[in-house]
Amino acid sequence: MFRKLLIVAFAFLTAACVPIPAEPPTASEPPQKTEQLTECPGGYLDMLPGQSASDPVLGSLPAYIDIVGVDSSLDGETLTAVFYLRGIPEEIAVNREGVENMHLEYMWTVSIDLDGDAKDTFDQTDYTLDASYGARRVSTDTPATVRPFRTALRVGVYKHKHYPEKNETHLLEMPAGAQLHVSHEENTLTLIGRVPGITDESSILFSTFDILLGQDGVSCRPS
């Protein structure tokens, strides 16, 4: 799973910025459970659009990547995905020491497999909907800066183009604009984007990532 979150950073950094709406939507309490879950092949839960789930608190992680619940809905081909986090700061440090130039520093990601048959291989992910920040360091001693959390992130829908013979995956930004809503009051990060070909039988997987401090996802339930 860790390898999945590090792949193809350059595609994100060269994509065009998408305007971020100023007002987040009203959020409810974090979901407690979902009645139907799909598979859990790689340690994190694959879900169906429209499902919700809760996740245990991990005090070892920063609050902004600690998932406590997720929710989703599908309207045609427009996916809305809500991360309920333990906390979201007003500001976030970027270009920190130890993060190389052009490497993804933070990500909040929903991986989408259109036909719902993902088996823990990144090559079977067809699209991702995510908010991310890619480090921009002119030199190794470039100092870290602090930026508003909401405006630091880039949001987009990306199509995965796989090259199995090279063991590479290229990410192509889709032209339809994605949206990011952040609520500090509700501690929610909401992603909205059009995913061509998605249906209520597709699978989606939520994950978060801080290159220096760890990652999280929706934990698998005991069988």
Distance between the termini: 21 Å
Q: How many H/I helical runs?
A: 3
Oligomerization state: single chain
How would you write the strand order of the largest sheet? Answer: 9-8-6-5-12-13
Radius of gyration: 16 Å
Major beta sheet summary: 6 strands, antiparallel
The computed structural class is mainly beta
Kindly state the number of beta strands. 13
What proportion strand? Answer: 35-45%
What string, H for helix and E for strand, traces the elements in order? HHEEEEEEEHEEEEEE
**General shape:** globular
Averaged pLDDT: 82
- In helices, the fraction of residues equals under 10%
Low-confidence stretches: 1-27
Brief characterization of the structure:
The chain is mainly beta and 223 residues long.
What does this 3D model show about the protein?
This protein is mainly β and 223 residues long. A hairpin with a 2-residue loop joins strand 2 and strand 3. It starts with a helix and ends in a 6-residue tail after the last strand. It has helices at 2-6, 9-13, 149-152, and strands at 53-54, 67-75, 78-85, 91-94, 104-113, 127-134, 145-148, 154-163, 168-173, 179-183, 188-194, 203-210, 214-217. It has three helices and 13 strands, in the order ααβββββββαββββββ. The strands form three sheets. A six-stranded antiparallel β-sheet has the order 9-8-6-5-12-13. Strands 1-2-3-11-10 form a five-stranded antiparallel β-sheet, with no helix packed on it.
